[in-house]
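Q: What does the assembled structure look like for these inputs?
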Amino acid sequence: MNAADLILVAVFAPLVGAFLILVAGDQRANLRDTLMVLASVATFVPVATILPEVSAGGLPRVDVVEVVPGLPIAFEVEPLGMLFALIASFLWIITSFYAIGYMRGHHEGNQTRFFACFAIAISAAIGVAFAANMFTLFFAYEVLTISTYPLVAHHQDSEAQRAGRTYLGILLTTSICLQLVAIIWTWFAAGTLDFTPGGILAGKVTGPELGVLLFLYMYGIGKAALMPIHSWLPAAMVAPTPVSALLHAVAVVKAGVFTVLKVIIYIFGTETLRTTGVSEWLIYVAGFTIVAASCIALTKDNLKARLAYSTVSQLSYIVIGAALATPWAIMGAAMHIAMHAFGKITLFFCAGAIMVATHKTEISQMHGLGRRMPFTMGAFLLGALCVIGIPPFGGFWSKWHLVGGALDAGEMLVVAVLLISTLLNVAYLLPPVLYAFLLPPKPDDHDLEVGHHQHHGEAVALHSYGGEGHGHRDLEKRGGIREAPLFCVVPLCLTALGTIALFFYVEPLFGLLYGIIEAGTVTK
Amino acid sequence: MIAVHLPILQVVLPLIAAPLCVLFRARDLPWAIAAVATWTAFAISGLLLAQVYSVGVISYEIGDWAPPWGIEYRIDALNAFVLLVVSGVSAAVILFGRDSMLAEFGRSREYLFYTAYLLTFCGLLGVTITGDAFNLFVFLEISSLGTYVLIASGNNRRALLASYQYLILGTIGATFIVIGVGFLYAMTGTLNMVDLAGRVQAYGANTTIVVAFTFLVVGASLKLALFPLHLWLPAAYTYAPSMVSAFLAATATKVGLYVLVRFVFTIFGPEFSFVTLSLGLPLAILALVGMFVTSTVAIFQNDVKRMLAFSSVAQIGYMVLGISIHTMLGVAAGLMHLFNHALMKGALFCAVGCIVYRVGSSRLDAFAGAGRRMPWTMAAFCTGGISLIGLPLTAGFVGKWYLVLALIDRGWWPLAVLVVLSSMLAVIYIWRVVEVAYFRDPLPEAGPVEEAPLSLLLPTWALAFANIWFGIETSLNVNGAFAAAESILGGFGS
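A:
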């Protein structure tokens, strides 16, 4: 198979998978889950097979259909898209296993619909990654929004429905009212929507209009969660944890910031941005988002909510890198897509594992949990350190480059923001681990006092969508290690180790991304 | 040999088939006659379109009376395009109709229903094909009279009232048209459209001509339900049987729009209509206000058919907006949306018809749980809905894309932004249905419900699939619309 076929296989394998999952249905749950794993492998393998060609500077391309003259649905793999597709498809395999463990362990309903929509969302994410023009990207972006709505509203109660409306409302409104307008404007000004190295707007749109167009794009890409259109992300945390993990730490939000990068590199052109300075405001907005979201994260006791705000903050790292538009900053931003993906998916996996094993959702309930779930909490520590960005974790490299890029551009304010944010990261990510390992369990914790169990079980049930306290009574009398199912624990250990691997084996990643600088796509 | 007579066969076959339904009342026969007549008409319209594309305008002299004395059927790229839309959607809807009508209307007076259907169908085709202004009025009346019966055959008693409302307003519209035609005849002494065009345009802004123009435009606007002359439409679509709603939504208003376009462009000419009388501005304003007002009203409806009816009025706004730009791109976009909207509303109303068939109601509550219990029906509804919203790879996108391009091209870019924004309203009202269907448990009193039978599903899916097909393989709808726009604009505005 040549690269063009491989691209199509990567995009359509998840769709075929979704169809097979629907056919298998709830009655044949084991077959269905096997099919999902196979689909995820069938997606990752072609993506990985294209990698050498792209690393060598190739741009494999395939045109699918031309809807209107000049507006084809087409795919072209360039380094950034390669990176994003690689991460999304690889983490889908791991998440598949995790999701099997989680959904069964947590006794979730509607699993077939869940897995099918999940697969469609992955297909859309790959479509976003490989899109050859803004039109294709927009289409895949919208499919991603719509296919993830059933996942957010999965529990079908009033809370899930409200969250689903917020989710869909913000993402659709911004994309149609702002992004689509920007796309049409671009098409009219430049006569093309193809992603072209150096941008297509240089000299076509100038002056204040360029600033307006940038605004339309940046706020039209709601998935990048710039403040104040970030509230869909915390709302989406009512979804089952595998969704929060893969989609709201990797695929959906990264599709947003990935689009930001694509727009800035291939539509505006980094040189245009730097010489005109229209992205100055974006640096401030993203900087504000980084600090403000971190501060909000500090106040959250619900673990998933804290992680959600952390994601909002981390996404703006990438936006700030794009807005700086220097080679180092772009490198840092692109690498942060990968590094944050591994770090954050680990954290979400851990939050989900805790929920499955103990039905605990609040950080204040997790005192002493380290003794009971050492692997999970250990992985949490690694994930947290990666997000904080210290060696020997992958997160270090992206922060290193971002700071370098900011110094390059002479933006000391950005350097300050990045440093403050790192401190805030420490302040909101490490306490859960410290409480878990260092503090004794709280006296009213049902681990110790069986007498309170009945009452507590009800309270917990309210917190964790009807978890069943009774079944754990016998287990909880025993001490020692009682982890979540293996299907949950092994994936989170793998991604946690991945954060370290990304520090030591970062070379191929560098090589891939240097491609865009060497080719002159991002000018010095 | 027979190919020469295709234009007259297009109209006469349904006309002859109509009384046959009364003669052969046996079980299912009237339906079979109607179906055969519709499909034959569909085939003929396809042949006509191919002929027009290969040899150009077809002129057919009825009874060999040469125009302008005799009646001429004149088929160019515009009405061949509309004929195909009307007969194509009807061909799908008539297949849908058999079981749907049995459930909603019963068997006792089935033959009368199909007689009325065929007369309406014949009238709509006649309006579209004729090249004679008075003949157009006659066919318009035939189709209107048939429509009153079709609407009144809904099993809700309010269908009678809805039909009566339409009778009053439709008659006013038809009267306006006949008054307009009368003025023109008084001035020029001819009724043949081509002949009229030459003579009328020679007069310039003569008062009688302007009055005739006004009567004709208002009359046609009533028929095509341009906001705020749409008041007859929501009730009519809501209380008519499902099949009739699908049929009318996809054909009647489209033919109304055709009449407007024909009068404004062919008879009066774009120069007179848009430069001398600046019709573009009022049409654009009404279309835009209509889009926003009726879309907003649609959001608050609790009956899905009523919601779709208001949505239709809003969508008509898109078509009229395209026409009002009166450039090649704009008129083509309007006509493209005519084509696409027929497909969308056909699919949507048929999907609602499936729900009505199984649950017995088109209220929003009736959709609860439908996503699980009638997955294919709801998938078709979603497809139609997505096309209505205008997502890429659906027919709806193509039309909206060209409309936006046309607006920007004309320099009306704020309107282009408004058109994009108005899509959000469509998202909201379609989403309300989707949310109820997929995320709400069925009402306990609804009892067990299963998927609609294939006889309903297949036509529904044919229409839903067409929405995707014409969003990807756009040569027919895009090129057809451009050819049609070119045929009426000539060199104007380019």
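Residues 101 and 111 of chain A are 12 Å apart (CA to CA).
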